[in-house]
């Protein structure tokens, strides 16, 4: 031991600066006072060494020694020595080490140094500034609100620091320490500046998360910086753009909505340029954002609807369909715009390329063409897009050909079918190809027919009879309305005859051998119904076509608005203070010597106290539910764990109790995991006295949403037995419910994800519950998911129920569930629950959870 101390002392006095510094770093790891005591004079001598590398590590060594249990005896005047060194030091890292030592061991000295240099903090190196921010946060939280204003002024002065890291930390500290509008506004402006100046997308996403947190607690301040946030749309990253749009839509007010929509319109125009990265996907996001703006504030719809209608012919089907849905809703909610929207739709209808968009546009034309000129123009447009009749002719050789084309069109696209069937709104699978858009565009592109005005003809000739049925229904509706607005019976009969000719031609096409697949029964029955309605019109039929369809759509919009209003009311609920809580009255306080910022801060703190935002009651019963017994009561070592699940990691607080009369040596908690769980810390050995206890903490990282298992042993030695003893622990099962939460998504997005996701888990219904809705509510409660199917669609008693559920994990994974159940004659429920996700883990784990919980009762 003497030789070791002598060797270390020689190294501390070495002429080589690196040897001295490395030895001082090594001393930071030693914990034996007997070894350190003879070295203390040499360590202190290095505080005044000429080289900064040595001084830097000498301060670290003094700090490490002083933190030891007997450290105040080894170096009783360590804080004073370090404070003296800090006053004369010039090296940034050495100053930071000295300041951190004072912060940890002599906080009053650190505070005195900070306040004495408050005017020069902005000139400090960034390492020291970061340490100063840490000190301010620590002091303000400990001292309360006594002299918080002095420290907040220092933080505000650091918001103009050249280091982005310092600025970011200052903004976060400012928000956590003060609720004054001036302070929050300064933090929000700082975040916006960082958002525009930083090029790293990960940094942008983190800053946007901070802005989202600000919006939740200080929305009125965030409203003022909404245009600064919008500038981040210049980033080419889709995730950044999506977060920006989500944040901006939450900050809309009547005062800024026009400015926001104008900016979004400019962005939509920019997406037409070919060089824009992921332009079609970005355009779809912008269309959805503008749609949300127009729903909240209908007065802005007039400024954007005509621009967006130019994109009804967008090659990106999802984007074009979003535009069509937007137009459909706006034309109902804004009667003043109907005439101009109908005229614009008639002018641009021939540009539409996608079947789904055509169907929506046809419904709009049939429902909202009210005047004589509009009805006649709509009928004329449809006839022009269908083209010359008949749709095909039979040549002398017996081969069917398109009557308007010199050669047979390519219809190979009809045979293209998706590997996965489409799911309808009621949850059943459809025979219609999920690759409808491919089937639409392929033959058209080959022939160039969609470049002409006969887009409906090309789509129908590709085998899309669902669209053909929509054309038939729309023509029928227009002719029925023409009877009301046209006084000339001759013109009405002429239009009816023309419509009947188109309908009969479509039926002939569907029953011919011209196409590989004949018309489906549903489309055939609908077209035949339209023929009968045109041939034998009556008042009841007229009422159904002209009134009932519109009323159903109005009811759907009203219900959707009602659901959104209810959700907003639920979110707006705030906690209130208890009747006996103390409230300070701002007007009765002394204002002497207080700055404007300090006054605002005091007001906001009082408001928080009044509204109960300071009180966060911990639910002790829930804590007790998370305690798991790991060993039996008769085992020599008793262990239980308290499991805390954060978003990305699990913390196990394990209490180990020695129930024997012997000292347990080298006691080690050995854990292993199964699934996407990973241990962070290596196990350590402990010595446990007789009948004493020890708290051991284990951190486990989580990388995906799936059910994981943690298992392990407690291994220890005793003085009597040389062999190691092992106690096997009970398994800890990590529940998937801790990682998923209810979420919402549109019907179109749900269908797209359902067709895209590869992993499906099909669970057969096996339950004692006999009521369909009760079973649905039980599954929703058990899986922590949200039902996307509106309540009106679940009304009534028909013995059958289909519903879609959706949830999102903390890792951003989507979980889709479709429930299709039917009540049998004996009263039991049968059917299937299908789960789809992008990853296998969440599909399997959710399936296991449903299988375990679906029977009902206490299971």
Automatic annotation (TrEMBL):
<keyword id="KW-0931">ER-Golgi transport</keyword>
<keyword id="KW-0677">Repeat</keyword>
<keyword id="KW-0813">Transport</keyword>
<comment type="function">
    <text>The coatomer is a cytosolic protein complex that binds to dilysine motifs and reversibly associates with Golgi non-clathrin-coated vesicles, which further mediate biosynthetic protein transport from the ER, via the Golgi up to the trans Golgi network. Coatomer complex is required for budding from Golgi membranes, and is essential for the retrograde Golgi-to-ER transport of dilysine-tagged proteins.</text>
</comment>
<feature type="domain" description="Coatomer beta subunit C-terminal">
    <location>
        <begin position="579"/>
        <end position="717"/>
    </location>
</feature>
<dbReference type="GO" id="GO:0005198">
    <property type="term" value="F:structural molecule activity"/>
</dbReference>
<protein>
    <recommendedName>
        <fullName>Coatomer subunit beta</fullName>
    </recommendedName>
</protein>
<dbReference type="Pfam" id="PF01602">
    <property type="entry name" value="Adaptin_N"/>
</dbReference>
<dbReference type="GO" id="GO:0000139">
    <property type="term" value="C:Golgi membrane"/>
</dbReference>
<dbReference type="InterPro" id="IPR016024">
    <property type="entry name" value="ARM-type_fold"/>
</dbReference>
<keyword id="KW-0653">Protein transport</keyword>
<dbReference type="Pfam" id="PF07718">
    <property type="entry name" value="Coatamer_beta_C"/>
</dbReference>
<keyword id="KW-0472">Membrane</keyword>
<dbReference type="InterPro" id="IPR016460">
    <property type="entry name" value="COPB1"/>
</dbReference>
<dbReference type="GO" id="GO:0006888">
    <property type="term" value="P:endoplasmic reticulum to Golgi vesicle-mediated transport"/>
</dbReference>
<feature type="domain" description="Clathrin/coatomer adaptor adaptin-like N-terminal">
    <location>
        <begin position="1"/>
        <end position="382"/>
    </location>
</feature>
<dbReference type="InterPro" id="IPR002553">
    <property type="entry name" value="Clathrin/coatomer_adapt-like_N"/>
</dbReference>
<dbReference type="InterPro" id="IPR011989">
    <property type="entry name" value="ARM-like"/>
</dbReference>
<keyword id="KW-0968">Cytoplasmic vesicle</keyword>
<dbReference type="GO" id="GO:0006891">
    <property type="term" value="P:intra-Golgi vesicle-mediated transport"/>
</dbReference>
<dbReference type="GO" id="GO:0006886">
    <property type="term" value="P:intracellular protein transport"/>
</dbReference>
<keyword id="KW-0963">Cytoplasm</keyword>
<dbReference type="InterPro" id="IPR029446">
    <property type="entry name" value="COPB1_appendage_platform_dom"/>
</dbReference>
<comment type="subunit">
    <text>Oligomeric complex that consists of at least the alpha, beta, beta', gamma, delta, epsilon and zeta subunits.</text>
</comment>
<keyword id="KW-0333">Golgi apparatus</keyword>
<dbReference type="GO" id="GO:0030126">
    <property type="term" value="C:COPI vesicle coat"/>
</dbReference>
<dbReference type="Pfam" id="PF14806">
    <property type="entry name" value="Coatomer_b_Cpla"/>
</dbReference>
<dbReference type="InterPro" id="IPR011710">
    <property type="entry name" value="Coatomer_bsu_C"/>
</dbReference>
<feature type="domain" description="Coatomer beta subunit appendage platform">
    <location>
        <begin position="723"/>
        <end position="850"/>
    </location>
</feature>
């Amino acid at each position: 031991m003497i030789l070791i101390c002598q060797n270390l002392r020689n190294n501390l006095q070495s002429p080589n600066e690196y040897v001295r510094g490395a030895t001082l770093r090594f001393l930071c790891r030693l914990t034996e006072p007997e070894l350190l005591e003879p070295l203390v004079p040499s360590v202190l001598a290095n505080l005044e060494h000429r080289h900064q590398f040595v001084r830097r590590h000498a301060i670290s060594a003094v700090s490490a020694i002083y933190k030891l249990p007997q450290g105040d005896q080894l170096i009783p005047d360590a804080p004073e020595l370090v404070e003296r060194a800090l006053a004369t030091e010039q090296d940034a890292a050495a100053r930071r080490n000295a300041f951190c030592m004072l912060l940890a061991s002599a906080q009053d000295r650190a505070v005195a140094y900070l306040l004495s240099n408050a005017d020069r903090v902005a000139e400090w190196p960034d390492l020291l500034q970061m340490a100063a921010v840490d000190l301010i946060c620590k002091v303000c939280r400990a001292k309360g609100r006594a002299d918080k204003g002095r420290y907040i002024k220092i933080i505000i002065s650091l918001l103009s620091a050249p280091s982005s890291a310092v600025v970011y930390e200052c903004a976060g500290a400012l928000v956590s320490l003060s609720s004054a509008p001036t302070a929050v506004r300064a933090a929000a402006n700082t975040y916006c500046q960082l958002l525009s100046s930083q090029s790293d997308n990960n940094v942008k996403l983190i800053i946007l998360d901070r802005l989202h947190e600000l919006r939740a607690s200080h929305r009125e301040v965030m409203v003022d910086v909404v245009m600064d946030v919008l500038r981040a749309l210049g980033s080419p990253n889709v995730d950044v753009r999506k977060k920006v749009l989500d944040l901006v839509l939450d900050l809309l007010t009547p005062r800024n909505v026009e400015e926001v929509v104008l900016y979004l319109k400019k962005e939509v125009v920019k997406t037409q340029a070919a060089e824009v990265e992921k332009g079609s996907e970005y355009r779809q996001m912008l269309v959805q954002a503008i749609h949300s703006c127009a729903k909240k504030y209908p007065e802005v719809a007039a400024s954007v609807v005509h621009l967006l209608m130019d994109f009804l012919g967008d090659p990106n089907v999802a984007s074009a369909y979003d535009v069509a849905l937007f137009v459909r809703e706006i034309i109902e909610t804004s009667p003043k715009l109907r005439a101009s929207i109908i005229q614009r739709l008639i002018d641009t209808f021939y540009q539409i390329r996608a079947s789904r968009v055509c169907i929506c546009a046809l419904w709009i034309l049939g429902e909202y063409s009210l005047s004589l000129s509009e009805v006649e123009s709509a009928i004329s447009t449809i006839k022009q897009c269908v083209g010359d009749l008949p749709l095909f002719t039979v040549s002398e050789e017996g081969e069917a050909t398109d009557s308007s084309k010199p050669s047979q069109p390519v219809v190979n696209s009809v045979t293209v079918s998706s590997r996965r069937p489409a799911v309808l709104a009621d949850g059943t699978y459809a025979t219609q190809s999920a690759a409808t858009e491919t089937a639409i565009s392929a033959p058209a592109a080959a022939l160039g027919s969609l470049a002409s005005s006969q887009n409906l003809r090309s789509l129908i000739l590709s085998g899309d009879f669902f669209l053909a049925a929509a054309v038939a229904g729309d023509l029928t509706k227009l002719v029925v309305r023409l009877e009301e607005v046209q006084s000339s019976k001759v013109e009405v009969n002429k239009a009816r005859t023309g419509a009947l000719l188109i309908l009969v031609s479509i039926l002939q096409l569907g029953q011919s051998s011209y196409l590989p697949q004949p018309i489906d029964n549903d489309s055939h029955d609908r077209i035949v119904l339209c023929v009968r309605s045109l041939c034998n019109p009556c008042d009841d039929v007229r009422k159904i076509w002209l009134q009932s369809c519109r009323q159903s759509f109005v009811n759907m919009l009203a219900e959707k608005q009602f659901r959104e209003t209810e959700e907003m009311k639920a979110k707006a609920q705030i906690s209130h203070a208890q009747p006996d809580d103390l409230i300070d009255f701002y007007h009765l306080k002394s204002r002497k010597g207080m700055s404007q910022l300090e006054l605002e801060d005091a007001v906001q703190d009082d408001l928080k106290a009044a509204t109960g935002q300071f009180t966060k009651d911990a639910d002790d019963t829930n804590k007790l539910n998370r305690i798991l017994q790991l060993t039996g009561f008769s085992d020599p070592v008793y262990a239980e764990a308290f499991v805390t699940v954060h978003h990305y990691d699990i913390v196990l607080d394990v209490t180990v109790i020695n129930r024997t009369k012997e000292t347990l040596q080298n006691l080690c908690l050995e854990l292993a995991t199964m699934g996407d769980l990973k241990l962070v810390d290596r196990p350590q050995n402990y010595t446990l006295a007789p009948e004493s206890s020890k708290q051991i903490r284990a951190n486990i990282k989580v990388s995906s949403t799936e059910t994981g298992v943690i298992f392990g042993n407690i291994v220890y030695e005793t003085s009597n037995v040389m062999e190691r003893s092992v106690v096997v622990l009970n398994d800890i099962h990590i529940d998937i419910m801790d990682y998923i939460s209810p979420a919402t998504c549109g019907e179109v997005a749900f269908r797209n994800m359902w067709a895209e996701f590869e992993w499906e888990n099909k669970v057969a219904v096996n339950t004692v519950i006999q009521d369909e809705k009760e079973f649905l509510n039980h599954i929703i409660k058990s899986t922590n998911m949200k039902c996307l199917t509106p309540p009106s669609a679940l009304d009534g008693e028909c013995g059958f129920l289909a519903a879609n559920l959706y949830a999102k994990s903390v890792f951003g994974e989507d979980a889709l569930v479709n429930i299709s159940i039917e009540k049998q004659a004996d009263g039991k429920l049968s059917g299937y629950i299908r789960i789809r996700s992008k990853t296998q883990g969440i599909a399997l784990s959710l399936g296991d959870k449903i299988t375990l919980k679906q029977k009902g009762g206490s299971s």
